[in-house]
Amino acid sequence: MDTQAPLAVEAPEARTVMDKAAPEDGINKETPSQDAQLGVQKIEAVTLAWTKKSLAASLINIWIIFLVNGLRGSILFSLTPFVTSDFQSHSLLTVIGVVSDAMTSAVYIPMAKLLDLWGRAEGLLIMVISATLGIILMATSHNLAMFCAAQVM
Question: What residues does the Major facilitator superfamily (MFS) profile domain cover (predicted)?
Answer without folding.
Answer: 58-153
